[in-house]
Specification:
Layout lengths: L1 H22 L2 E12 L3 E7 L6 E4 L1 E8 L2 E9 L5 E14 L7 E12 L2 E10 L8 E3 L1 H4 L3 E8 L15
Parallel strand pairs: 1-10, 2-9, 3-8
Antiparallel strand pairs: 1-2, 1-7, 3-9, 4-5, 5-6, 6-7, 7-8
Length: about 170
């Protein structure tokens, strides 16, 4: 009897810890608005638990040298139609396996992203996503540790982060 009681106590404690863990994460929908830093641009985003990494729709992508390092300059269009030019240090080039066609090489930069009150600096690959409905695809590397996606929800939060929480290069 003692072992059964102990077992129930352990199950209850585990459930309580799991509930606390879930409570500390933000529940959002599969489609949300996100603010990207730098640039403080708000854009529609799809939160995709099937994607490892995040991708951002960019235009006018060009590389240049700054103090012996490779940087990229690109344009992002906000949900309000405003076009913002952003410059970021190139972190690496990623080889992306696509569903259709050959692998694709994409530049990867570090950006701050805010959904609701959750902010995280994450690597984002830059690509022309104009044929897709959402400019920003947020993968598991962004969501891990702070976001739970409820696929039955959309547009549940607005980005509340007003400025970068740490400095990006």
């Amino acid at each position: 009897m003692k072992s059964v009681c102990l077992l129930f106590q352990m199950i209850f404690a585990f459930g309580f810890v799991a509930a606390l863990s879930a409570d500390s994460k933000q529940i959002v929908g599969v489609i949300e608005n996100a603010r990207i830093f730098p640039g403080e641009v708000i854009i529609p985003a799809k939160l995709d638990t099937g994607a490892d990494n995040s991708s951002l729709n960019v235009k006018q992508l060009t590389g240049f040298d700054r103090d012996g390092e490779t940087w990229v300059r690109f344009q992002v269009t906000g949900r309000d139609g405003k076009i913002v030019t952003i410059e970021r240090k190139l972190m690496r080039n990623a080889r992306i396996k696509r569903h259709e066609g050959p692998r694709q090489e994409r530049p990867v930069v570090l950006m701050g992203i805010c959904v609701g009150n959750y902010y995280k600096e994450v690597e984002v690959n830059l690509v022309d996503r104009s044929r897709f409905k959402y400019q920003l695809l947020l993968g598991r590397s962004f969501m891990q540790g702070g976001i739970i996606v409820d696929p039955s929800l959309q547009q549940t939060v607005e980005p509340e982060c007003r400025q970068e929480k740490t400095s990006l290069e």
